[in-house]
Design a protein that fits this description.
This is Novel STAND NTPase 1 domain-containing protein. The protein is mainly α. It has 46 helices and 7 strands. Strands 1-4-3-2 form a 4-stranded parallel sheet, sandwiched between helices. Strands 5-7-6 form a 3-stranded antiparallel sheet. A hairpin with a 2-residue loop joins strand 6 and strand 7.
């Protein structure tokens, strides 16, 4: 506990100093006053509070406020405070003063003890944390609305506009500890630490095994570094990724994982930048040669600019480690520190022969220890090996080659026979290493594999991490480039057979056992699939089947970017591969959809559809068309959805579809027509009502359409309550959703809240659905006039989750709902910033529906402010979006009653009617 308190005391000192420095620099008096109040809060905690460790979050928040104020007021003048930034500063000032008064009163109220110390209840501290949390979120909201007045724009990404304090809510990652074996580099560590403290980026470039990663880990754990960066020290490793297949998505996903945060579906660099801008950060990009030498076009085009953008963020320092010498300065090495030793002279000579290469020294020392070699015997064996000619390889030293040869020729390794070398090649081949629990079943032809791995670990040729047996990058590269590689055909066949069988069994059984194996070994399986796809001449139907089945499993259990995209698109098309390639493309598109990469999903589905048509696989054509139509509908592109579905009905494939497949098409067509009223409401969903699979869903949708079109509530409610007793969870959710909307429209708001809560409880295991309906509860709460509860409910859905994929869909839903809440509360500045953020997100995702809602909302704000020219411009844009969607402007919210703006915002209807002040609009 004392160590923790000491850390907090040090953090207090650093933060107080930073706050006082910023206070002297900011040009706005009100900001100076806020910073002075923050400094006072921290001084009280430092001087008289006993339970200082309980204030760590408040210290972090105070430092975050300092950073935001510094950036928001850069280059500003007092004249700039007439707009929303001035209001935001004033509200922040009130909140900070409130917390300061509370803490000060606690100090003064305990007169007998205040000369010594005061202990404050943890619940009270939590309340202050919430107050500051709320104050910071509101300040960011208000400040964004003021970017037009000349103040430097806060670089808040799309996700940041809602999850403004994500840096306070993220799952902090623990940086790696200082290496246990790390000698002779104190001066170098001190020199590099000084560079980092002085805000200099560093590139550690050299051959594998030089200790670049160890050096960066040592720097991360230097006291001066921990003081300056606290828990904002991140180690992002790209070891194990293949430069030939790495994608930009894989790059940013691994980056975000190391930061402990999550990415929405769009503009990931902006989101990473938003996170990093929130406070000082030190980021190590380890094994940077992986993306420096990337051959994938997206990686080559996007990764270097992304790193450059991150490096330009004030307060963010990068350390890159790389074996690549491209564009690196030719600086001679100083061996004085690494060669300092008290060893006998012959060992000193051996160290010199090893070029003082740390990994080589470690390997050789382990070989000597395990084989009981005396220094004399070690030298003798080294000199014998040294007489052989070994060539340098790119990114390696000759000493490492010698050392590896000596280690492999030692008695301990020789006793393993050929199986030892096979095992090394296998571990080097697999990007995750060898799963220790599965080693014996993965490699039945190596019955002693567990014992072999134990020996290799003792020799330091491999190591264990998270139940995988791994290999350091320099050793892996040596093994891959040596006579040990490639992996022998027997072992490769064993591994492929096991992974293929696991994937195939999962696709048939959908069981947890096989799913757990795929999740734990997903990178290895992906590597095997890519490896097999690249061997075109040997490709079999099973290889393609495993590919799409693996993508299907990722979609269900671990949606993430995949490196298989290029390999799938590159599959050579011929009569025997068309259908199989189409399957792979279809599931690739489905995975893209789960990641909200809508453009990539459309591209993959179109390509799959073309192949299915060529192969006369008519049900596959229907899969692709319905997938695209569903995506169009979710984007509010109802005309396009209707067109692709009607085109399918007029195609050659239609006659070959079974009744269930046709019913699915009719059901989706009904959904599109329900929004556009392209058909009489009594005809909607009728064709699909008799189908076994789509019948009940169609009956529910039919009455939903009647409600949306006619608002005839009594029969709709009666039929939906009857249908509620039948069907699966999805059907019950659909019926309950509309019953909640019915209650909302009838102003039975408490009942609407109860129904939404029942959906949340029913969908508890599906966090994305829980978030979706929690946001709806926030909207209903605002309709009840409880704006604080509304904000709290919506803000809850922005919390990071270990399992939920926070998609762009939920972001748009959450952002628009927040805008509606603030508009209802007549907090127009905040509402404007949320509406603007929603429009930006819609532009990225080509989404029309939320964009139309938000542009109309911006028009109402302009109307409320008396800016009728701007209001007219906004309403005209919203009207144009309605035309694009195929929706009547007067029925913009017909299918989304909870999303509709309160009736008192009448600018939209005045505009549509051509009434004052919009007569000229007509």
């Amino acid at each position: 506990m004392k160590m923790k308190d000491d850390t907090v005391v040090q953090a207090l000192k650093v933060t107080i100093a930073a706050v006082n420095t910023t206070k002297d620099l900011v040009p706005i008096d009100l900001a100076k006053g806020i910073l002075g109040t923050i400094a006072n809060i921290l001084n009280i905690v430092q001087s008289v509070i006993e339970n200082k460790s309980d204030f760590q979050v408040i210290i972090n928040m105070c430092d975050a406020i300092r950073g935001v104020l510094e950036e928001a007021t850069e280059g500003a003048t007092e004249d700039d405070l007439r707009g929303s930034v001035g209001k935001a500063l004033s509200k922040l000032n009130v909140s900070v003063n409130h917390v300061n008064s509370e803490i000060a009163s606690r100090k003064e109220g305990n007169f007998l003890h205040r000369v010594f110390s005061v202990t404050i209840d943890r619940d009270k501290i939590a309340g202050w944390e919430k107050d500051l949390d709320r104050a910071l979120m509101l300040f960011n909201t208000g400040a964004i609305a003021g970017i037009g007045i000349g103040i430097k724009k806060l670089a808040l990404g799309l996700e940041g506009n809602i999850n403004r304090i994500n840096f306070l809510k993220y799952r902090p990652t623990v940086p790696p500890s200082r290496p246990s074996m790390f000698y002779g580099r104190d001066a170098l560590v001190a020199e590099l630490t000084d560079l980092v403290i002085n805000d200099e980026h560093i590139a550690l470039i050299g051959p594998g095994g030089m200790g670049k990663s160890s050096l960066s880990k040592a720097i991360l754990n230097e006291p001066l570094i921990t003081e300056k960066f606290s828990d904002r020290r991140f180690f992002v490793t790209y070891d194990g990724l293949d430069p030939a297949t790495i994608t930009f998505e894989a790059f940013v996903t691994r980056f975000a994982t190391a930061l402990g945060t999550e990415l929405a579906g769009s503009d990931p660099v902006r989101q990473l930048s938003t996170f990093l801008r929130s406070a000082r950060a030190l980021v190590v990009l380890d094994n940077a040669e992986t993306f420096e030498e990337a051959s994938g076009s997206s990686a080559l085009e996007k990764i270097p600019p992304a790193i450059a953008d991150i490096a330009d963020i004030p307060g963010v320092i990068l350390i890159l480690t790389s074996r690549s010498r491209r564009n690196s300065p030719q600086r001679s090495m100083d061996n004085e520190g690494s060669s300092r030793s008290d060893a006998e002279e012959e060992i000193k000579d051996l160290l010199k022969e090893l070029e003082f290469h740390p990994l080589s020294i470690n390997l050789l020392a382990n070989a000597a220890q395990q084989n009981n070699w005396s220094p004399h015997m070690l030298l003798k064996r080294w000199n014998h090996l040294h007489s052989k000619v070994l060539e340098h390889g790119r990114g390696k030293l000759q000493s490492l080659s010698f050392t590896m040869q000596l280690s492999l020729s030692s008695p301990s390794i020789r006793d393993l026979g050929e199986d030892g070398r096979r095992t090394l090649a296998i571990i080097a081949f697999l990007p995750q290493g060898l799963n220790a629990d599965l080693a014996s079943v993965l490699l039945p032809s190596l019955p002693q594999v567990d014992a072999i791995c134990d020996v290799l670990c003792i020799q330091s040729l491999v190591y264990r991490q998270n139940n995988f047996i791994k290999m350091l990058a320099p050793i892996r590269h040596y093994v891959q480039d040596s006579a040990l590689s490639p992996i022998d055909t027997t072992s490769l066949r064993d591994i492929c057979d096991f992974y293929d069988h696991t994937v195939e069994e999962w696709s048939e059984e959908q069981d947890h056992h096989h799913a757990d194996i795929i999740i734990s070994d997903h990178l290895n399986i992906e590597h095997i699939v890519a490896f097999n796809l690249a061997r075109v001449s040997d490709a079999t139907n099973q290889i393609y089947d495993v590919c799409w089945q693996f993508l299907w499993c990722l979609l269900c259990h671990l949606p993430r970017p995949t490196t298989l995209s290029t390999a799938i698109f590159d599959i050579v098309e011929n009569p025997s591969t068309r259908t199989l390639k189409a399957h792979c493309l279809y599931y690739l598109g489905a995975l893209y959809g789960a990641l909200c990469q809508v453009g990539e999903k459309q591209k993959a589905l179109r390509a799959a559809e073309t192949l299915y048509i060529a192969a006369s696989v008519h049900e596959g054509v229907a899969w692709c068309v319905t997938g695209r139509a569903n995506l169009y509908t979710c984007q509010g592109r109802f005309i396009e959805a209707k067109k692709v579905l009607e085109d399918l009905q007029g195609s050659d494939s239609w006659d070959y579809l079974n009744e269930g497949e046709k019913a699915h098409v009719w059901y989706l067509l009904g959904r599109a027509q329900m929004h556009t009223l392209a058909a009489p409401v009594d005809e909607l969903f009728v064709k699909s009502m008799e189908d076994r699979d789509w019948g009940l869903r169609s009956h529910i949708a039919h009455w939903v359409a009647k409600f949306y079109s006619e608002r005839d509530i009594v029969p709709v409610k009666m039929h939906l309550e009857d249908l509620l007793q039948r069907g699966d969870m999805y059907d019950r959710q659909s019926a309950l959703h509309v019953l909640a909307e019915v209650a909302f429209c009838e102003d039975r708001l408490s009942e609407a809240m109860d129904i939404l809560q029942s959906i949340i409880e029913m969908k508890g295991q599906f966090l994305s659905s829980v978030d979706w309906y929690t946001v709806f509860k926030g909207v209903v709460a605002s309709q009840q006039g409880n704006y604080d509860l509304a904000r709290e409910l919506i803000h809850k859905t922005s919390r990071p989750s270990e399992f939920a994929l926070h998609s762009t869909d939920i972001f748009l839903h959450r952002s628009y709902a927040s805008a509606r809440v603030e508009l209802t509360a007549e907090e127009y500045d905040r509402a404007e910033s949320y509406f603007t953020a929603t429009v930006e997100g819609c532009d990225v995702q080509s989404e029309l529906m939320f964009k139309a809602f938000s542009v109309r909302g911006l028009g109402e704000i302009a109307f409320a402010r008396g800016n009728f020219a701007l209001a007219e411009q906004r309403f005209a844009e919203a009207q144009f979006l309605c035309t694009d969607m195929g929706v009547s402007p007067r029925r913009l919210y017909s299918c989304f009653p909870i999303s509709a703006l309160p009736e008192r915002f009448e600018g939209w209807l005045l505009f549509l009617d051509g009434r004052s002040p919009f007569e000229k609009a007509m």
